[in-house]
Amino acid sequence: MLARYQIKPGNNSQLIQGYFTFKPDWMESQYLPDFLWSQTDAKHDYRHNMLFNHIQNHHQLTQKANLIRNLTRYCQKHKAYIWEITPVTFIINTQTPIDIDLTKKDFLEFYHNKPLTKKYCVYTKPKIKDGNEENLWICKPSSLNRGQGVQLFKTEAELNKIICRQDKKSLNQDFIVQKYIENPLLIDSRKFDIRMYVLITQDLDIYVFEQGYLRLSSEKFDLKNTNTFIHLTNNAIQKQGEKYCLFEEGNQLSFQFLNEMTQFQFEEKSLAKIKQIIVVSLLSVQHFFHKSKGNFEILGYDFMVDQNLKPWLIEINTNPCLDESSPLLKDLIPRMINQALDIVLLKKVDPKQDWQHLLRL
User: Fold this and answer.
1) Is the pTM of this model over 0.90?
2) Which of 52, 103, 167, 317 has its CB surrounded by the most CB atoms within 10 Å?
């Protein structure tokens, strides 16, 4: 009997459809599929006996506020300083004006350099090192991705305006206020971030795709200018700018470029640390994932690298963008998807493939 698969449209789902086209043991079916691919897990019944491309409780990683909460608990328990993993972050609850005031209080005390009312342990107490001349911060809705709702601010008044301007959809969730990295490593005087892919299999094996890529801004870096096209490197944002693709196709570059630019210090110094951070992030939520064994997920991890080649975890995305928006991604993304599906469906791990096994949860 042929196995059945269903691919719901969106986010370049033709890639997944193409994978199954050459699998004679599979047939497409809308009825009780053995494999289901969808952009979201909304309304999905995890009791069904099928392979599904979202891990139950993935929001413990992929919602920004939950990520900070779980990393905080993990670092307290294991005596690691959280703000060496991710930039200093505060969570603001926007359900009601009272919630906003109460949760914003911790941030404002820190922002104004006042004594902190909240009791922190040594591993979670916020601290910012030298090199913070502009005191620039970034505000993000916890559950949105691809740059939606992200804004920069320097003053308390600007933060208040950002929160007041949010629509009802955004105000039904937490916000995070995160310290902006003011000393990023630059390429041609422009900011970039790093996208990497992580696979969680149905057996809770963790793999990292070693060929990530860089996403670059279209404008010269300038801390005194809060222009979106300077500071937000998401492709969904950059492609709206006049200078998109002016410097490189799709505003994207390979790891090879960064390695050569840093005389291979990125690979030797930064990449190993990035993998350590990935492991820590997953260990911080492993108790949630053990409850949902049987599904899998490809996550998009976003990192920044500062001038000292120190990586910083920025966020983790469910349903990461699979658009083949440059020649680089036309090679990288199909290879990433095909190899990941081989691991999940065939439990086939080719030593020559690009997915590296990190651990089993």
Assistant:
1) yes
2) 52
